User: Which sequence fits this backbone?
């Protein structure tokens, strides 16, 4: 089993698909990495040689992935909150920040419903 950037790649998957298990690498970037390393994207991970894995590691070292990328994302969010912009305030309140409706839905972002006592629907 190949271990790249601290992630164990599944050995029975194609190398192009297996690389997407690394945080920060999607389909396009995975294909670009394999093309630069001159490796066939259809090769299974178990069939990769140590030389191939070393080439892939060298290509990935040029890209921010895993912990470094997650730290960057967190610092960007913290900056938004410190500046006090709209998106930062929405992050602080735990609400959706890209214009979604919140009167109904948005449960994933808002969390479990909190019942407010004494609040009933007004009679018509």
Assistant:
């Amino acid at each position: 089993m190949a271990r790249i950037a601290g992630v164990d790649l599944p050995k029975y998957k194609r190398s192009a698909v297996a690389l997407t298990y690394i945080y920060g690498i999607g389909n396009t970037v995975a294909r670009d990495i394999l093309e630069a390393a001159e490796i066939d994207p259809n090769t299974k991970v178990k069939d990769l040689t140590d030389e191939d894995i070393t080439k892939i590691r060298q290509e990935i070292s040029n890209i921010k992935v895993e912990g470094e990328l997650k730290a960057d994302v967190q610092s960007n969010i913290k900056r938004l909150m410190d500046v006090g912009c709209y998106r930062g305030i929405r992050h602080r309140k735990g609400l959706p920040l890209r214009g979604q409706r919140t009167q109904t839905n948005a449960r994933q972002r808002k969390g479990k419903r909190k019942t407010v006592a004494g609040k009933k629907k007004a009679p018509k």
Remarks:
- Residues 66-83 form the longest helix (18 residues).
- The longest strand covers residues 3-4.
- Helices lie at 15-18, 27-36, 50-60, 66-83, 86-93, 107-110.
